[in-house]
Amino acid sequence: MYSVTCRIPVGSKRRADIVLGAVGVDAELRPEVVSRQWAVDDDGVLAVTVASDELRAVRVSCTSVLDHVALAIRTLAAFDGEDAGGQSQSTAAPAAMVESGM
């Protein structure tokens, strides 16, 4: 069994819960092959563990998860009015929260 856990800091528990609500509803395309476990901690870290007997399936699922999380974080930054640290933002560029390499 292969597994990968990604821990993604999003700034606050509230923001992590919102991101999880946006991406956690998407069902795994092959639930008989890949499983995902989501968690949010009090420090605003969103964690996802992807597991499978197939290494390729873990890689593909992780890539998809990270793409969706990055999109959710960018969208939240554009509309939330709160920066990654949980502070009200007025002039900060929200897109700076997510690096394009994700």
Automatic annotation (TrEMBL):
Gene Ontology biological process terms, A to Z = tRNA processing; tRNA threonylcarbamoyladenosine metabolic process
- Which Gene Ontology cellular-component terms appear in the entry? cytoplasm; EKC/KEOPS complex; nucleus
Annotated stretches, region: Disordered:
82-102
Annotated InterPro entries:
CTAG/Pcc1
Where can this protein be found? Cytoplasm; Nucleus
A Pfam family of this chain: Pcc1
Record bears the keyword Transcription: no
Keywords, in A-Z order: Cytoplasm, Nucleus, tRNA processing
State whether keyword Lyase applies. no
**Protein family:** Belongs to the CTAG/PCC1 family.
What PANTHER family does this protein map onto? Answer: EKC/KEOPS COMPLEX SUBUNIT PCC1 FAMILY MEMBER (PTHR31283), EKC_KEOPS COMPLEX SUBUNIT LAGE3 (PTHR31283:SF5)
* The protein's name in its UniProt record: Transcription factor Pcc1
